[in-house]
């Protein structure tokens, strides 16, 4: 079996390592247009923000391929698929035969067709990232075009470097696909507090030498312009080979295209009408495809999307159908804009189908897992939004309120009632109680409680006398 | 009137010092660091009742009937000879325990290899800290649970405890933690987690992902101790690359631990001047336990902790002699002194001490679960000798293991009470316990301690050492039975090994309140902190080892939608064979229970006190419902001191340590109608 993989990004490299884990012998060749080893695109915003160095986002060491008997052809773009003879042909003329072929060509940044756009730098690849950082060193003002996930991360990162940043966004609020209006506004307020000037509902007409010109003629001054206007699947190779392509390369539940010997995964693939732009689905697809390729039975049924913003001092998770309103679902909401807090649950048929958590919260872990697993939502919705709220209070601090049956010393199983009995028998301090009941002689953490009870009993005595 | 005798507690690895008066009153000692403040938990205080409760075995039982010692020993020896003659030496298995003294553990290993010639010996310590041991050996070249005195902990700024509940399992330990801030990782808000400054509550089976996420974050925030990494370690670059796919937001989705909580933990650990990372069974008892511990060790190394005075990594060993029990040869792949049985030089040396040819020593045998699983099968052992263990309660998939044990031609147990496994035996030898015999124990610090005989054993009872010698004699071999003489032989056998006891004597232990191994000569002071100058690897550097997270061996699904995790309660020890026979402990914790979150209970229509049926693919158990929001919504918890919990657990094994996955499996929970 000869496996050829086109694309050495997050999907392609993941697939190769997953296949190799399952089958130590299959002949594998991977082609990558970029010369560098694969890196984790998710972490590019950390690089931009300066919290990761470029060499820290590599996914595999360059030695990995040789060590795992995978032929890696980097800097070698595949130009053509010869489906009749089952070969791929590279731009430099190499013909490589395959039995199975996986397309993991990813996507390109969308560059809007506006005058002067070549003056702007898209935020997509590690190279882009390095260009932006290089330019940011000299820049005095930056503009980021696009208020989606990546645009926000870029703007936050640049602001964190001390650069004044304006974020321009066409829609009425930030991340409008993932967030409702209020969440988008709260997010904007949080970012504003971190030095990002937010302009929503604005349209860009050109990128000029001295900044970005809006439709209404206003000039936003900038000497660094970053584009984060979304991505488009790279499907040219597949289309030219005659595979079915809609927005992405169309695949079935085994991630096969309409040619059963060719698979597509990651951002270039379209499954059940959806093209995913996040890493988690690409890796789920890589895992299923690796199973199928190595003879296993595995099906891909789509992914649940959780969007997690990676921007310092901004905690945001959004998942599922956040736009549903009370007409179609049960909506539970808490908003405290002054603190940048917004939490929303969307529940339908007793299941969590959407959620937004903005601001630090212990709720996020539980909600993500409830959403992922599709499990039933507990009746106590408040407990979901505010974990810890319903926590049982520890043994009452006040000796007065504590029932006699309350266990005071866990280590020696001593109740308040036993301490009282001990006191009644004459013990007047902790040492006396310890000698009689062994309370406080284990871990020692109940010492204060025992002391409290003893002195309360002594006070009571004083009162009654 | 005689004085009180100085000894140590019969239970956990803390080995609290205690005195026993002739009237059997227990008093904590104040000269032993583990409990120097005079602390004891309820188990320790009531230990005297072990000596007097009426359920004591005092006569050998042959097929359930009282028998003379010689008759029973003759019977066993002749059956063993016959089984060996028919099926070969590996047809006889030996199963030991982490509660046995060093002298017994050593003799058991020698008996198996020399008198029986069998490779089939292992012990319940495999179910204890074997994952941490394997990870420590990889990273540091040596496994000494805590490579520092326990009293060092008090000076630390932070202690991160991954999967440990010391407030219940070894309460006096908590006294050493009153100074540092604690970070506790546990799916339950345990008694220990309640004491923590920060509690991270991951999904069962995801500790490995959490550790990777923490280290990823440490690197991303540029908080790695680069100087230490450069000077004292190897392999960091490979680990750093392997972590690129474990960014915190991904880890949050897997573990359920919020990113900002991870950040709090990482920043606090990095800011601490002195810090420790400790792991317990919660992190270790998984089919990926070795890798999980490795990930925590990697984190400790990146923080620059191990081998620094006042900082470090340690494993909180559980059983009384969990540390010593893993060093002297009752493990399938091991010879005394923590030597490897497949190392020709080690074989040559130990065979020399034993006066046998090296080639006569068998090779490595099956690990504990694999050994139990093979019993009575065509390829497996036909007979088993069992010491200090109760696998019918403590092994995973316990019903299956009970069937395997029942299929043996011969089961011989040494015990002092009729444990559930002893009740199945063809022959039961009544043996001495704890305060009735002398022997050394190596506690969780690696400190070798001396338990002195304090009381005369009941008539009719003999030491395990006598049983072994009696059987060996009938098989044509001679074994020492006097503990000091056995210890002297152990000292010679361990000399030059990693766990070198050759410089330790009973006199020194008494005088110095314990001696830390390695101690290669009687002039050597012992080694409280073995890694200060150098690690026990060939180049003296600690090794970073890249590891990757993967799901639990059994994840929840529609049929079994809830995670089960298992653990301990304060009042009981291990399989409960001892503590379930002490009235005040039974009163404190009378019955098995299932801890259920109120939301899950509501969904399942279960209220507190209901009898609940918990079932997994391997079996079923009933227990009383306890409703508590200390547990995650997706998880139930059961203590394993009673029959039941381990019928459910999953025997999926760690590829390196062969540790079963006690800490997570998938179950269904229903109200018992």
List the helices and strands and how they pair.
The complex is a heterodimer of chains A (465) and B (673).
Chain A (H helix, E strand, L loop, with lengths): L1 E5 L3 H13 L4 E6 L11 H6 L13 H5 L2 E5 L3 E5 L4 E4 L4 E3 L2 E4 L3 E3 L11 E2 L3 H13 L3 E4 L3 H12 L4 E5 L11 H13 L2 E5 L3 E5 L2 E4 L4 E3 L2 E4 L3 E3 L2 H5 L8 E3 L10 E3 L4 E3 L7 H15 L12 E6 L2 E7 L9 E7 L4 E8 L2 E8 L4 H11 L7 H5 L21 E3 L4 E2 H9 L5 H8 L9 H18 L1
Parallel strand pairs in A: 1-2, 1-7, 2-3, 7-19, 9-16, 10-11, 10-16, 11-12, 18-20
Antiparallel strand pairs in A: 4-5, 5-6, 8-17, 13-14, 14-15, 21-22, 22-25, 23-24, 24-25, 26-27
Helix pairs in contact in A: 1-8, 11-12, 11-13
Chain B lengths: L4 E4 L8 E4 L5 E3 L13 H4 L3 H4 L8 E2 L2 E2 L2 H19 L4 E5 L5 H15 L4 E3 L6 H11 L17 E5 L3 H4 L11 E5 L12 E3 L6 H14 L5 H7 E2 L1 H7 L5 H8 L3 H13 L3 E5 L1 H4 L4 H14 L9 E4 L6 H4 L8 E2 L3 E2 L3 H11 L13 H7 L8 E5 L3 H4 L3 H9 L3 E6 L11 E4 L8 E4 L4 E5 L12 H11 L8 H12 L11 H7 L2 E2 L25 E2 L18 E6 L15 H6 L4 E4 L1 H7 L6 E6 L2 E9 L7 E5 L5 H4 L1 E4 L6 E2 L3 E7 L2
Helix pairs in contact in B: 3-19, 4-19, 4-20, 5-13, 7-10, 7-11, 7-13, 15-20
């Amino acid at each position: 079996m000869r496996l050829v993989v086109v694309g050495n990004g997050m999907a392609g490299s993941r697939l190769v390592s997953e296949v190799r884990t399952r089958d130590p012998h299959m002949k594998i060749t991977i082609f990558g247009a970029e010369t560098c080893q694969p890196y984790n695109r998710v972490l590019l915003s950390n690089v931009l923000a300066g919290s990761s160095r470029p060499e820290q986002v590599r996914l595999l060491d360059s030695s990995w391929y040789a060590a795992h008997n995978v032929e890696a052809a980097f800097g070698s773009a595949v130009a053509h698929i010869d489906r009749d003879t089952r070969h791929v042909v590279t731009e430099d003329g190499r013909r490589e035969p395959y039995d199975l072929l996986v397309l993991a060509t990813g996507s390109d940044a969308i560059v809007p067709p506006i005058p002067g756009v070549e003056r702007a730098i898209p935020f997509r690849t590690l190279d882009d990232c390095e260009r932006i950082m290089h330019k940011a060193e000299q820049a005095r003002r930056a503009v980021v075009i696009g208020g989606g996930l990546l645009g926000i991360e870029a703007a936050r990162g640049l602001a964190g470097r001390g650069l004044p940043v304006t974020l321009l966004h066409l829609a009425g609020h930030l991340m409008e696909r993932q967030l409702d209006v209020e969440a988008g506004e709260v997010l904007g307020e949080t970012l504003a507090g971190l030095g990002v000037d937010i302009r929503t509902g604005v349209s860009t007409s050109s990128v000029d030498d001295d900044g970005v010109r809006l439709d209404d003629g206003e000039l936003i001054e900038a000497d660094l312009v970053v584009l984060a206007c979304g991505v488009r699947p790279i499907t040219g190779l597949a289309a030219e080979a005659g595979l079915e392509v809609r927005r992405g390369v169309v695949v079935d539940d085994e991630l096969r295209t309409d040619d059963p010997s060719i698979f597509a995964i990651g951002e270039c693939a379209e499954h059940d009408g959806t093209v995913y732009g996040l890493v988690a689905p690409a890796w789920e697809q890589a895992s299923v495809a690796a199973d199928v390729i190595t003879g296993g039975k595995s099906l891909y049924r789509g992914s649940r999307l959780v969007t997690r913003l990676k921007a310092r001092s901004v905690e945001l998770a959004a998942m599922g159908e956040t736009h549903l309103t009370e007409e179609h679902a049960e909506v539970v909401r808490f908003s405290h804009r002054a603190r940048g807090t917004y939490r929303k649950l969307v529940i339908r048929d007793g299941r969590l189908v959407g959620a937004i958590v903005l601001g630090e919260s212990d709720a996020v872990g539980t909600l993500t897992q409830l959403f992922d697993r599709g499990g039933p939502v507990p009746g106590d919705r408040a407990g979901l939004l505010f974990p810890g709220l319903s926590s049982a209070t520890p043994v009452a601090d006040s000796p007065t309120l504590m029932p006699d049956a309350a266990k005071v010393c866990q280590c020696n199983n001593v109740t308040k009632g036993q301490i009282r009995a001990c006191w009644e028998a004459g013990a007047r301090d902790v040492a006396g109680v310890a000698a009689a009941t062994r309370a406080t002689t284990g871990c020692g953490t109940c010492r204060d409680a025992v002391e409290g009870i003893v002195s309360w009993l002594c006070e009571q005595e004083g009162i009654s006398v | 009137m005689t004085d009180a005798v100085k000894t140590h507690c019969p239970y956990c690895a803390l080995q609290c010092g205690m005195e026993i008066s002739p009237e059997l009153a227990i008093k904590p000692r104040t000269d032993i660091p583990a409990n120097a403040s005079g602390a004891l938990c309820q188990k320790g205080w009531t230990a005297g009742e072990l000596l007097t409760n009426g359920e004591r075995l005092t006569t050998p039982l042959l097929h359930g009937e009282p028998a003379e010692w010689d008759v029973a020993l003759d019977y066993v020896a002749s059956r063993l000879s016959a089984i060996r003659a028919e099926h070969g030496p590996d047809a006889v298995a030996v199963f030991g325990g982490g509660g046995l003294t060093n002298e017994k553990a050593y003799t058991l290993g020698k008996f198996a290899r020399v008198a029986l010639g069998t490779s089939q010996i292992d012990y319940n310590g495999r179910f204890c800290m074997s994952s941490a041991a394997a990870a420590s050996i990889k990273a540091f070249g040596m496994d000494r649970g805590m490579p520092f005195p326990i009293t060092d902990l008090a000076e630390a700024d932070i202690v991160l405890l991954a999967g440990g509940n010391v407030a219940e399992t070894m309460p006096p330990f908590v006294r050493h933690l009153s100074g540092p801030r604690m970070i506790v990782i546990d799916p339950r808000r345990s008694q220990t987690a309640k004491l923590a400054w920060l509690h991270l509550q991951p999904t069962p089976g995801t500790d490995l992902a959490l550790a990777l996420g923490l280290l990823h974050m440490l690197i991303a925030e540029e908080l790695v101790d680069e100087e230490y990494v450069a000077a004292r370690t190897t392999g960091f670059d490979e680990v750093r690359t392997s972590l690129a796919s474990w960014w915190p937001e991904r880890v949050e989705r897997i573990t359920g631990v919020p990113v900002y909580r991870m950040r709090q933990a990482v920043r606090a650990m990095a800011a601490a001047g002195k810090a420790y990372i400790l792991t317990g069974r919660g992190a270790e008892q998984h089919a990926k336990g070795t890798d999980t511990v490795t990930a925590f060790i990697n984190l400790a190394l990146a923080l620059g902790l191990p081998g620094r005075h006042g900082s470090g990594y340690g494993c909180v060993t559980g059983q009384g002699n969990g540390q010593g029990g893993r060093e002297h040869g009752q493990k399938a792949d091991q010879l005394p002194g923590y030597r490897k049985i497949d190392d020709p030089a080690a074989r040559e040396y130990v065979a020399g001490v034993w006066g046998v040819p090296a080639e006569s020593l068998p090779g490595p045998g099956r690990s504990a679960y694999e050994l139990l699983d093979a019993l009575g099968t065509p390829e497996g052992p036909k007979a088993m000798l069992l010491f200090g263990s109760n696998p019918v309660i403590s092994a995973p998939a316990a019903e299956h293991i009970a069937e395997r044990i029942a299929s043996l031609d011969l089961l011989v147990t040494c015990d002092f009470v009729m444990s559930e496994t002893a009740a199945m035996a063809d022959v039961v030898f009544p043996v001495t316990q704890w305060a009735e015999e002398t022997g050394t124990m190596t506690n969780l610090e690696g400190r070798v301690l001396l338990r002195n005989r304090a009381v005369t054993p009941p008539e009719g009872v003999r030491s395990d050492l006598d049983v072994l010698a009696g059987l060996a004699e009938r098989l044509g071999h001679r074994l020492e039975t006097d503990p000091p003489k056995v210890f002297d032989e152990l000292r010679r056998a361990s000399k030059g090994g990693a766990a070198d006891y050759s410089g330790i004597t009973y006199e020194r232990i008494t005088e110095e309140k314990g001696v830390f191994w390695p101690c290669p000569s009687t002039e050597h002071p012992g080694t409280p902190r073995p890694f200060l100058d150098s690690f026990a690897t060939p180049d003296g550097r600690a090794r970073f080892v890249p590891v990757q997270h993967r799901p639990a061996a059994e994840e929840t699904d529609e049929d079994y939608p809830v995670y089960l995790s298992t653990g301990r309660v304060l009042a009981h020890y291990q399989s409960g064979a001892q503590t379930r026979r002490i009235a005040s402990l039974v009163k404190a914790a009378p019955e098995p229970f299932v801890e259920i979150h109120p939301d899950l209970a509501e969904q399942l229509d279960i209220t507190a006190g209901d009898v609940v049926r918990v079932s997994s693919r391997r079996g079923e158990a009933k227990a009383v419902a306890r409703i508590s929001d200390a547990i995650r919504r997706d998880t139930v918890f059961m203590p394993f001191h009673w029959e039941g919990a381990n019928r459910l657990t999953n025997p999926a094994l760690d590829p390196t340590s062969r540790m079963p996955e006690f800490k997570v499996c998938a179950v269904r929970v229903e109200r018992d109608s």
